[in-house]
Amino acid sequence: MSSSDFNGCLPVDLLVQILARLPVKSLFRFRSVCKILCRLPFEKHFIELYFRTAPKDPILLLEYPESGAFLSVDRFRDVSPFALGFLNDKVNIRASCHGLTCCSSVRNRGVYYVCNPVTREFRVLPRTRDRPLTRCQPEYEATLVGLAFDPFSWNFNVVLAGFYRLFGHRPRDDFVCQVFDSQTNSWSRSVSSMNDEFTHMNRCQVVFSCGLLHWLTQSWSHLLVFDPKSGVWSKMSLPDEVLMTRSGSRLYLLELEGSVSVVQITGMLMSIWVLTNHCTELWTLFDTVHLRCIKVLAASIFPIGVSRDVIFMATQKKIMIYNLKDKVWKELYSVNGPVTYPLWFSAYGFRSTLFPCRQRRAL
User: Fold this and answer.
1) CA atoms in the 13 A half-sphere facing the CB of 157
2) Residue 61 and residue 33 share a domain
3) How many CB atoms lie within 10 A of CB 163?
4) Same structural domain for residues 163 and 139?
5) Model pLDDT for residues 129-163, shown as the tens digit of each residue
6) pTM of the predicted model, to two decimals?
7) Spatial distance between the Cα atoms of 80 and 239, rounded to a whole number of angstroms
């Protein structure tokens, strides 16, 4: 892009820097101004600039399992539909990473998509096996689903892992792991012995950091770590303070602007820990939050997303946000009337980016 592309008063470089700091909705409104701005969000240099400089506040995605509809909620109380209709399928969100989401098809079991909901680009992954999975012949169950996207190479891996079981039998200790590589467009398969268990929240809260995928086990004794490149599973210890006080506490795994974070809720106190060094497994206490102001909701509140400024929380019918700097609670969204599933059951943290997938649809 040269200075001759615009006749405005601002230098082109300054204009690009301004656009790279806009929310993604505002950025795409500018596409109708001229052809240059129309193609700007899809240029490689701007995609990388937007990832480095755009606001890093997460937004919350809410899925309604009954209807398959999605909503997005941001820190400014902007509630809007979150459309995945460009996939032409009813899907569930299973994981997200750097603005890309991994979705599983509800109608066609075993079909997975990786897409960018902002740009409406998507990629249909090949099936992990030729014969479709059926209720009568389950080979394994995808207990864990992870998405690992490298913002430097723009390559990604999708990880499906679950315990092997024969039909009519309880799962064995054989942990089957299949990894999709976007470069080779193929799956690799490995089997290891494992006896860890996971709750629904553990399965949904997966964090990709330093090239590794992290899950919190049901025992809350350690993090389960997987390297998509080498296919090696390992364990990572939690902070000593968390291990000593985990009895009577609740633990949750979140991403804090690219770092692994563990949130511990004990009574009326919430502690946020951040993994500052992977090699030495060094944890640092990032902040503590008192829940006295929401004492009635404290027992049923779940952290969903966190940044250095705010933390998103979900209850049965409410979405709330706490400003870590101003120490103020706000209600962002609420549901009137009865609900089949609590909001925390299908709420996900998400950050908008412009990273591409293949098979781009027209906006």
Assistant:
1) 23
2) no
3) 18
4) yes
5) 655 555 444 444 567 999 999 999 999 999 998 87
6) 0.88
7) 38
